[in-house]
Amino acid sequence: MNKIITKRETESINSEFDEFLPGSITPGMNVWQRFRRYSGIGFLVAVGYMDPGNWATDIEAGSRYGYNLLCVILLASMVAMLLQTLCVRMGIASGRDLAQLCRERFHPKINFMLWLFAEVAIIACDFAEVLGTALALKLLFGLQMEIGIILTAFDTLLVLFLQGRGFLKVESFIIALVVIIAAAFAIEIYIVSPDWDAVAGGFIPDLGIFNEIEAWMLAVGIFGATVMPHNLYLHSAAVNSRNIHPGKKAEKDAIRLLTYDILITLGIAFFINAAILILAAAAFHYSGYPDVKEIDQAYYLLAPLLGTGAASILFGIALFASGQSSTITGTIAGQVIFQGFLNIKLPRWKQRLITRLLAIIPALIGIMILGEGGVGKLLVISQIVLSMQLPFAIIPLIMFNNDKEIMGRWKISRKLYYICWLICGAIISANILLLWHIIT
């Protein structure tokens, strides 16, 4: 077993985030100044929780089951918040990210297997981004899906350009896209005027619904789209982009403020995801259209059902912003995973191009086989794949957070340790049950 490398020894290793560094945290700063230096990481992670894959699962869930699956979005968001706070603790305590610790602590064969699963998650995420962006280009500009998918290869140039401009440029770009998405859905919700009493009832679980395999598949898809495995790797690496003074007091302050940052930003992501489902439920399910499964179906139906063409335009713009924002998350997460597991440094453009091609090729094949009407089905499948990969990221995360050698004074409590294993067991059981239903 390799030794745990200290934070001082990791300064050269964590160069992946050097360009994001907004400055050091000094003892004389007040709480707001310190929080401002720590913030930004949350938005980098949270954009992955509102990608086009979420749209596909939320739209189908809302149109088919009304508000009943809002409870799944709430539960998935709470689980995501808990797991991301574990990433904060582990990153600050060890000075290492999840992928690096896997390489140091596990046998090379196990490490290689975990890397493969992590790459599958990255490809599934990128697959959803490719399809979502291409669909937005089709809806807004009339481009064929095949052309839109090919054009998404140029997203690589945008990401590399932003990464070269520094942290504040990346943060500002991401926040701008999140504001666009949030504003678009705020207007949509205002137009559709849902029954808020019924919306509140949707957060109370109705277990009878899950007797249907379709509801179970959507629930697992929502979990995969919300609790994304690659975000665990990304977040555990991103927290080490800040210059934190050694010592208990400084580390405690960093953990506290970075936890606030991720809770706030994931709270925003939760409201956007809930808004997508609420819009689909109010506009389609309760208007006699319970079979809306495709994003383009939703786009074309919104204008006549809500009585304004602006509803569809806002929907398309938000979809495009969603695809672009989550592209940044997927890109940086892919770099963290590749470098952390394999300790191989490739130029960013090569890493990004390889990952994007691995998503573009299956996306083109899927469209050729299922046609443009199969985008929603492909997106839901990609989110189920993400859910299947979750345990392979969650299990090491729990193990490392409970390791005294890694965590030191920040080792999690026994109670939290058991809660985490209970959540992990529930996710594994849900995935196994889903696979059994699909096979039989």
Give a description of the structure.
By secondary structure, this protein is mainly α. The chain is built from 19 helices and no strands. The protein has helices at 31-38, 41-46, 52-65, 70-94, 98-105, 108-141, 145-151, 155-165, 167-192, 196-201, 213-226, 229-238, 248-283, 295-306, 310-342, 348-370, 375-401, 404-407, 414-439. α4 (70-94) packs parallel to α11. Residues 1-16 and 18-22 have low confidence and may be disordered.
Outline the fold blueprint.
Blueprint: H1 31-38, H2 41-46, H3 52-65, H4 70-94, H5 98-105, H6 108-141, H7 145-151, H8 155-165, H9 167-192, H10 196-201, H11 213-226, H12 229-238, H13 248-283, H14 295-306, H15 310-342, H16 348-370, H17 375-401, H18 404-407, H19 414-439
Helix pairs in contact: 3-11, 3-13, 3-17, 4-11, 4-12, 4-13, 4-17, 5-15, 6-7, 6-15, 6-16, 6-17, 7-16, 9-13, 9-15, 11-17, 11-19, 12-15, 12-17, 14-15, 15-16, 17-19
Keywords:
440 residues, mainly alpha, 75% helix, 0% strand, globular
Brief rundown of the structure:
The protein is an all-alpha fold and 440 residues long. The protein is built from 19 helices and no strands.
